[in-house]
Amino acid sequence: CVLCGRTDDCPEKYGEKRTYVEYNLTVHYYCLLMSSGIWQRGEEDEGVDGFLIKDIRKEVNRAAKLKCNICRKKGASIGCVAPKCKRSYHFPCGIQKECIFQFMEDFRSYCWEHKPVQKLPVKESRGTSQCTICLDLVEQLPLYTVLKSPCCKNTWFHRECLQYQALSAGIYFFRCTVCNNKDLFQKEMLRMGIHIPEKDASWELEENAYQDLLQCYQHCDTKRCLCKKGRDYNKPDSKWEIKRCQYCGSRGTHLACSSMKSWEQNWECMECRSILAKSGNYSKQKKRSLATSEKTDGTCLLEEPSPKCPRQSPGSQRSFLLQSPKIMCQNNLSSCSYLELPASNSVTMSLSPLMSKRNWSTRKKHFRQQRSEVSNILKELKLQINTKTTRLNINAENIWNSAVKGFRRRSFNPTNTIEIKFTNCRNRPTTDSSAASKHHFFQILMLHLQNSSLFEGSSAKNLSLDFQAVKENLYFEAGKMIAVSLVHGGPSPGFFSKTLFNCLVYGPENVKPALEDVADVDVARTIKMIKYANSLSSLESTIHDCYELLAAAGCLRPITALCDKDMLVNDILIHHVIKRIISPLESFRQGLKTLGVLEKMQMYPEEFSSILCHKPERLSAEVICDLFTIHSSSDTNKIEGADFWLGYLQDVESGESVVTLEDILLFATGSLSIPPIGFDPEPTIKFLHIRYPIGNRLLNCLELPITETYEQFKKNMEFTIRNTLKVARE
């Protein structure tokens, strides 16, 4: 290695050892990362992961003048960051002397005297415990070779075990082995010098590792199988379709062999039926079709839904307060069941004033239906996206230029999975999760476009004429960015004017602009003076005063009557709003063709208008309730948790809480709004025996505590969400 001078090839200790024959260069990756005088100034595919070859040469020359305080040899490229400390050392020497190297932010290094240590309570008992990774004994002492879990009391690890676990699990799956805490655990381990690589887990990268799990049970187990083609024959949507037991999934039957109809959803094998009968929980259910609910004038009749009733759309006519929360059993994810209503199969309730207030207006229902259809269209477009990853390194201080540079890279392909890595002023990679970083990037990008010189107007915007942007082809890039954001799960712009949208969908020659589309105050004033002139003389005077403007627009025409003003106004509007920006408009249209978005806009104009011309609907308790699917474990039979959750949403919506509905969504998913394509995976809720709620943004899962009282539930929710988001903002 040109930096440490050692020939050791130990990826776990020193990182991957790389040799570049063309540059006559060999280097350990960790030696390069931790060197004090070098930064990643190139793209990821340049040099050594962004470290330019000439910069590496300079660093080698700089280190050649520094003597290692440990081995006394020259070439010490790493220095302690503690103030007034002048110690320098090689990376392997630092490991040997128990220095701390932090693989985050500025990649700081601390010598053996100034290294961070874990603070332990004075009264905490000392002794031995079991390392939960290797299961060998570990001393409960603040040593370099031993680390304590920040989230679990009396949980200790060997440093070496933790490092191997981190290298295997990667940043997405490395967490506390006892409580599964991820954020706090990773933060502490990074502080104490554990390297957590930004990659997927090793078991996720293994080809066909889960192939056995994809096999479904396909066998008819009835005593007398009627199928002539055998017990293993399965033909979907026919009487020879095999239904699996809704409880165990390990027994099956042909529909015809058990006299079942195609629309029937429930079937239990004899073993499961006998177990349920012994426990007293089994009762012969009536065979039901999927349609189970009706609505009458003034009252709402609720029936117990079918166990496989499809998820209702946000615009369905019902109040979320009346419906039973959806609960899916973890033991069998292929089937779901609803919480039973406390009364009989049907309950009649009168609509209260609160219920009528929560009924959506016809307009809102129409918008929600359109947005639901857009989500399906975008999911269809997303089928183009493959698993190959394109990584964009985005400078947090100059997102626009970084985005343009990334989108223009020759290797950029919109059909690849996009991974965003934010860098600070020194271009050091951050440790944010990929999904959160990507959504945050697209959110800031859409906001930048809205306020950029490419668009003009207050809230509903049209394209402006920016000659420099035309020269640099930025209108094409803007259209491309919007298309990519929509298909890759980012937000929609939501600021298009109707005129701009119609120009994109129907063509500029078929659009008639309005006075509201004119953003230039002087031009708008001139148009108003012409439009509201009440005599021929005043009209002629106005035309004389704005002669240069009309001549430049090519709108000069002989005026013989007062009614000619209408044609003149129309000419000025068409020139200023459409003809003037015809070149930017065409470039913008070409950019929107990326991934087939413009084609879908032209096929479904009303649906896309709901997301491009309107901001996302304001979150409500009903929207949040419908968004999350509730999961329950087998030991959770009580429904107080679900009741507390619904009540808490009501309190938040009515302003009786210190957090907002947006805070809840951000805590669970990392997003302030629901993207047009929806969330992947779909947001879920689990009620667990934990003290505080946990937001798993990787899985969009909200883990909620089961508490005895609503006050305790609300207190824990507000404390955790408020403080978590406060730390994130800081």
Topology at a glance:
Blueprint: H1 11-14, E1 17-20, E2 25-28, H2 29-34, H3 53-63, E3 78-79, E4 88-89, H4 91-96, E5 100-101, E6 109-110, E7 128-130, E8 137-139, E9 146-148, E10 156-158, H5 159-173, H6 183-191, H7 202-205, E11 242-244, E12 252-254, H8 270-279, E13 294-295, E14 299-303, E15 326-329, E16 337-338, E17 346-350, H9 353-357, H10 362-382, E18 389-395, H11 399-407, E19 417-423, H12 434-450, E20 455-456, E21 462-463, H13 467-471, H14 474-487, H15 498-506, H16 521-531, H17 536-545, H18 547-553, H19 564-578, H20 582-592, H21 597-603, H22 605-612, H23 621-627, E22 629-632, H24 640-653, H25 661-669, E23 684-688, E24 694-696, E25 701-705, H26 710-729
Parallel strand pairs: 15-22, 18-19, 22-23, 23-25
Antiparallel strand pairs: 1-2, 3-4, 5-6, 7-8, 9-10, 11-12, 13-14, 14-17, 15-16, 20-21, 24-25
Helix pairs in contact: 10-22, 12-14, 14-20, 21-22, 23-24, 25-26
CATH class of the largest domain: Alpha Beta
Strand percent estimate? 5-15%
Query: What would CATH call the architecture of the largest domain?
Result: Alpha-Beta Complex
Largest sheet: 6 strands, mixed
| Radius of gyration over C-alpha positions, nearest whole angstrom | 32 Å
Tell me the number of strands: 25
Mean pLDDT: 82
Structural class: alpha+beta
Question: What is the terminal-to-terminal distance?
Answer: 39 Å
Molecular shape: globular
Low-confidence segments: 283-360, 425-432, 634-638
CATH fold name of the largest domain: Hect, E3 ligase catalytic domain fold
**Spatial strand arrangement across the major sheet:** 16-15-22-23-25-24
- Helical coverage, percent range: 25-40%
Give the tally of structural domains: 4
Number of helices: 26
GO molecular function: ligase activity; ubiquitin-protein transferase activity; zinc ion binding
Protein name: G2E3 ligase
Subcellular location: Nucleus
Keywords: Ligase, Metal-binding, Nucleus, Transferase, Ubl conjugation pathway, Zinc, Zinc-finger
